[in-house]
Write a structure and sequence with these properties.
heterodimer, A: about 160 residues, mainly alpha, 6 helices, B: about 240 residues, alpha+beta, five-stranded antiparallel β-sheet, 7 helices, elongated, Gas vesicle synthesis protein GvpL/GvpF (chain B)
Chain lengths: ~160, ~240
């Protein structure tokens, strides 16, 4: 086994802070706990992580899923016989790059901030970003381009 | 002075930590507190420690460094004891338990796997498979349906997403289970539908990795597999 003594520190082969993000839950929520020891306050980070979880059974989620379905360009589907369909398609194509769909959003914001610079105020920055993210939650359109569908955290030899 | 506690290892562990520093800014030097057959890796606890990237990384790097030379019980991030004596007492109190656990983890590492599926592909599939969903979708797109139809569509689709992800998740875990000693699933976050840790013994590592890759390939382009490891066995202490 090789361990790189800096940077990702062998967190994952090909380490980096994105893998730190992926193992964050392990470092914070798993690991041995000794009852008599005191734990430092993790307030900021715990709030972020709870927010990042999807609540599938909620009206908000239903509407976002419905919207995402409406936006789909269904090949082999109905031919656009009505004007509304045509308009719908045009809008959809125009928005394609920005439509990230119902499941995206909060967690990306957290990931992005984890990838950012390591400043003194990173928690505060994250909290601010999270605030910004939260407001347009129901109708979120991300401007990020699609990431590679498959990224391997570890390098095969 | 309060001490920050990183890990528990066996006394025989070489503890090669010379180039490593602990949490805090400036980083606190690492030292050990030993008692009986056990040693705890500690440093002075910095004032006002918070879970910053630098400190999380320091905590993690100590674990990975230690696991390169033997079994380690990684502590959860952020635990402090009032002083060295309190650490010693804590080691004594559960000495047998910790020693047994260290024995069981010898030669094992944790692998954490997270999987997500491209949402558009999944929704497309659901609409293809379900005439009911298609009908509702067409009604909404036609502009004639009220908000209750959107809601019905969303609920139907959400249910399908859930069911499909649950079954896919179970399939992935089952495929890898034979090559691991233990498994721990946790609540996936964000777009992931699966987050699971496996405890993998050295002699099974190759098979585990090969199987993971083959499962990822079989599931295809719409899925993203993120495997992290070998990691300290956070989920199996």
């Amino acid at each position: 086994m090789t361990v790189v003594p800096q940077g990702g520190g062998g967190v994952a082969r090909g380490g980096g802070s994105s893998s730190l993000y992926d193992v964050l839950e392990l470092i914070l929520d798993r690991g041995l706990v000794i009852d008599v020891f005191v734990r430092v306050s993790l307030v900021g980070i715990e709030i972020l992580r709870i927010d990042a979880r999807i609540v599938v059974a909620s009206v908000d989620t239903y509407l976002r899923f419905a919207e995402a379905c409406n936006r789909l360009d269904l090949e082999g589907g109905k031919q656009p016989s009505q004007l509304t369909d045509l308009v719908g398609d045009t809008v959809e194509k125009g928005a394609h790059g920005k439509s990230k769909g119902a499941l995206s959003g909060a967690v990306e914001a957290v990931t992005d901030s984890m990838k950012g610079g390591g400043d003194e105020d990173e928690e505060e920055e994250r909290e601010e970003e999270e605030q910004e993210e939260r407001e347009p939650a129901a109708r979120r359109r991300r401007t990020t381009s699609r990431r590679p569908r498959r990224s391997r955290e570890r390098e095969e030899e | 002075m309060a001490v920050y506690v990183y890990s528990i290892v066996g006394k025989e562990h070489p503890l090669r930590l010379d180039d490593f520093a602990g949490v805090g800014d400036p980083p606190s030097p690492l030292r050990t507190v030993t008692s009986g057959s056990l040693a705890a890796v500690v440093s002075d606890a910095p004032e006002g420690l918070r879970p910053k990237r630098r400190d999380l990384t320091a905590h993690q790097e100590v674990q990975t460094r230690l696991m390169a030379d033997g079994a380690v019980l990684p502590l959860r991030f952020g635990l402090t004891a009032p002083d060295d004596d309190a650490v010693r007492e804590a080691l004594d109190e559960r000495a047998t338990e910790y020693a047994d656990r260290l024995g069981a983890l010898e030669g094992c590492a944790e692998y954490n796997l997270k999987v997500k599926q491209d949402e558009e592909a999944l929704l497309r599939q659901i609409l293809e498979d379900s005439p009911e969903a298609r009908e509702l979708n067409d009604a909404v797109r036609g502009g004639t349906a009220g908000p209750d139809v959107s809601l019905a569509l969303g609920e139907l689709v959400a249910g399908e997403v859930d069911a499909r992800h649950a079954s896919l998740a179970a399939g992935v875990v089952e495929a890898l289970r034979p090559f691991s000693r233990d498994q721990q699933t946790s609540q996936p976050s964000g777009e992931d539908f699966l987050s699971v840790s496996f405890l993998v013994a050295e002699e099974q590592e190759e098979l585990f990795l090969a199987t993971e890759m083959s499962v990822a390939n079989q599931m295809g382009e719409d899925f993203e597999f993120r495997l992290n490891g070998p990691l300290p066995p956070y989920s199996f202490v």
